[in-house]
Amino acid sequence: MSLQEKIMDAFIGKVVRKDLAFQVKGGLPVPTYVLEYLLGQYCASDDEKVIQEGLEKVKTVIQNNYVHRAEAETVKGIIREHGKHRIIDKISVALNEKEDEYHASFANLGISNVPIGTEYIMKNPKLLSGNGVWCIVTVGYNHGEDLKVRWEIQSLKPIQISNVDKEEYIEQRQKFTTDEWMDLLVHTIGLNPEMMNRREKLITLARLLPHVENNFNFMELGPKGTGKSHVFQELSPYGVLVSGGDVTSARLFVKMSGNNEILGLVGYWDVVALDEFEQQKGRNVDPVLIDTMQNYLANKSFNRGKATHEASASMVFVGNTKHTVPFMLKNSHLFESVPTAFIKGAFLDRIHLYNPGWEIQILKKNSFSKGYGLITDYIAAILHELRNTDLTAVMDQYAKFDGSLSERDHLAIRKTFSGMMKLLYPDGNITDEEAYELVDFAAEGRKRVKDQLYKIDETFRAEPAKFQYVNLKTDETVKVTTLEEVENPQYVEFGEEGKEESGVQSGRNEQAKVAGQEGTESKMPRPRIPVLREGMKSIRMNQKGVTYQSLFGDYLHSARQINIVDPYIRAPFQIDNLLELVETIREVSLTPEELTIHLSTANEEDKIPEMTEIFNGISDELQALGITFTYDFKADHDRWILLDNGWKILLSRGLDIYEKYDRFSLGSIRQSERRCRAFTISFTKGKDITS
User: Fold this and answer.
1) Residue 505 has what pLDDT?
2) Which residues, 6 or more positions from 607, have their beta carbon under 8 angstroms from its beta carbon?
3) For the chain, what is the radius of gyration of the CA atoms?
4) What are the pLDDT digits (tens) for 382-428?
5) Considering only 125-129, 175-179, 424-428, 468-472, which range has the smallest mean pLDDT?
6) Residue 587 and residue 584: Cα distance in Å, rounded?
7) Which stretches does DSSP call E strand in 363-413?
8) Strands (E), 492-545
9) Are strands 15-17 and 84-96 parallel, antiparallel or unpaired?
10) I need a labelling partner for 40 at 20 to 30 A (CA). Which of 128, 248, 446, 642 fits?
11) How far is CA 682 from CA 510, 548, 654, 691, in A?
C-alpha cells in the first residue's frame, strides 16, 4: 500500500488533495484552512470524477457566498432583496458599553455595529480578539421605518472543525513508519516531501512547534521565499500572523479602555506570529512593548494597568536575513536582521529555538504538494488538543545535559524535545536512535541562540555553557554543535572543543603548527606538511563546504596508484562524481603524470556495453595527460579508496555524498556549495593494501 493510500485509509473524511486549494484560491485573500474546510466537505475522495464535481461545488460556494470587497454593495443588495443571505466573511466583535451589547463588524462586507447575540460570543471568544475570525454567517435585513438597526445576524459558524478525537489520531499514527508520518505532515502543510531531505523536513516541521507547545518562543530568520510565515498564516484558525511593524503593547497584551482592561492577541490565540520581524527604516519600537514582551516570554504573564494576566500563547518571530551565514558569523551575528531594540541579551535569551531558515530551499513550483494530506483545520484542532500534553520528562530517559547549562537552556531543550515528540511520536513509540535525533535537534536549536549571545552580550561570556550531554543508554558524552559552526569553524569564538569534530577541518591546526615550527629564518613560508591520522569523520546532513579535497586530499599527495571501489558509478551524476575525484587526484598529486587509477564498479548486464564505451572514453582522455585509467565490473557492496602509500579510505556512501543540486547553480560547478548527505569516512593504515 502506497503512502497516499495509507493516508486515505487511516484518515478517511479528514484528508484533502493539497493542490486543490491552490486551484480554488486564485487571488482570494482567504486562508487555506477556510478553503480546505469546504474542500473537505465536497472533495474528500481519490475518485477524480468526485473531486472535479466537488471542486465545482466549492467554486460555486465561493462565487455565491464569499464576499469580495469590490462587490460588497452588490451583496448588500442581494441581502436586502431576499431578506437574508449566507456569506463567508471575517467577523470581529467589540462590546458597546453604552448600549450594553456586543457589536459585530464585517471585514469585506463593510458593515459594522451589527448586534450579535451573547451566545455566539460565549461559544467563540476569539471573536473579541480584535483580529477577526472567518465565519459562515447568515445575514438578515429588516425593512420598515424608524429602525435603529437593519442588519441582523441570524446564524454564525466559525470555519473550523467543532470537535476532534485526539485518541483516534494517536491510534492511527501507529499505522505509519516515522518516514511516512513525516511525509504526511509535510504534505499536510502543503509542501512536497520529495524535495526535502530528513533534516529539511525536521526544520520545516519545527515551524509547527508553537502550535503544539504552550508558551513556546520560536524564531526563524532566513532568505525570502522559503515559506517561513506560511504555516502561521495559512495553517490554523488558532493562530494569528501580524506584521512586526504593526504590533503595539496594547494590541498584543492589554488595551486600557477607561477602567477596563481588554486582553490583546496573546489572550485569545494559541500562536501569535510577528512577520517581517526585521530592521526597517523609520520603525520605532515602544520600550514598554519590549519590557512587557520580555517578561511574558520568561514568565507567561504580563502586567498592564492594575492586574497581572497570564496566557499560554506561543510567540513567533520570523524575518528575512540580508546576508549569508558566513558573512554574519564573520562580521556580526545571526540575529543581525532583528530590530535593533530587540538585540539585547535579556530578550534573546528567552528564545527556545532558533530555526535555521537558511537551510530551507527557496520554494519553487515543484516544492508544493500535489498529494493528500490532513485537512489543515483538522490538524490544527489536533495540535490545539495536544498543547496540554507535556512530554518533557521523556527526555530524562535518554540524556543528561551538562550542569553548566542555565535553567533557560534546559527548559528550551526540553520544550523543543516535547513538541517534536508530540508532532512525530504522539503515541510515545520511539526508538533510541529517533530519540537522540530529537535531543540533538533541540540542543542545536538552543545552542544557536547561546552562541550568538556570547557575541552580543559580554555578561554571557563569564560563564559559558558546555553544550554536551551524557547518553544514558551508552554512558558516552556527546558534544552538541550547530551546522553553521561545523561549516565555519574559523568564525567560532566559543566552543573551541568542538572543532575537531567538525569534519572537514580536522587536523588543520596541527598541520599549521608543523608548517610553522621555529628555527626557520626564511621569509618564505615553509611547505605545508600534512599530518595524517587514522580515525573517522562524520559529515552531517545539509553540511556545506565539504569537498573531496578537504575530505581526503592530504592522503592522496604521495599516492601513485589509486584503486577506487564503488558499485554505483552508472548514472550521469555518478560519473560526474568520478571525474571530479580524478580532477582532485590530479590537483593534489606530487606526480600527476605518473598516476594509475583503477575503478571497480558494478552494473546490470545489459548496461555494461554502454558503460564500457563511456569508461573507454575517459581512459583515452586521461592517457593523453599521462594517467593510466582502468576499470572492471566486479565490485560488491563495499565502498573504499585504496592507496599504494598504505592508506585505505572507507566511504560509507562511496562518492555519492551530495544532495541533489540544480543544474543552473553554483553547486553544479563547486563542490563546496553543495549540501551533503549524512555519511562517515574512515582512515586506516597498514602494510597490506590488497583488500
Assistant:
1) 37
2) 570
3) 30
4) 999 999 999 999 999 999 999 999 999 999 999 999 999 999 999 99
5) 125-129
6) 5
7) 372-374, 399-401
8) 535-539
9) unpaired
10) 128
11) 19, 14, 12, 15
The Cα 360–Cα 377 span in angstroms is: 25
Class of domain 69-158: mainly beta
Looking at 457-558, list the stretches that DSSP marks H as alpha helix, in order from N- to C-terminal side. 483-487, 508-515, 548-556
Q: Where does residue 335 rank: exposed (0-12), middle (13-18), buried (19+ CB within 10 A)?
A: buried
Choosing among 3.10.450.50, 3.30.870.30, 3.40.50.1010, 3.40.50.1950, the CATH entry for 526-685 is 3.30.870.30
Q: Which CATH number fits domain 3-19+173-383: 3.30.830.10, 3.40.50.300, 2.60.40.1180, 3.40.350.10?
A: 3.40.50.300
Helices 376-386, 166-173: axis angle to 10 degrees equals 100
- Contacting residues for 303 by C-beta, under 8 A, at least 6 apart: 292, 295, 309
- Domain residue spans of the chain: 3-19+173-383, 69-158, 389-494, 526-685
Separation CA 100–CA 511 (nearest Å): 80
The whole-angstrom separation of Cα 130 and Cα 252 is 10
Residue with cell 503595539: 248
Q: Is the pLDDT of residue 179 over 90?
A: yes
Query: Residue 72 and residue 619: Cα distance in Å, rounded?
Result: 74
Give the pTM. 0.82
Name residue, grid cell 511516512. 180
Per-residue pLDDT tens digits for 71-107:
999 999 999 999 999 999 999 999 998 889 999 999 9
Q: Give the number of other CB atoms < 10 A from CB of residue 374.
A: 24
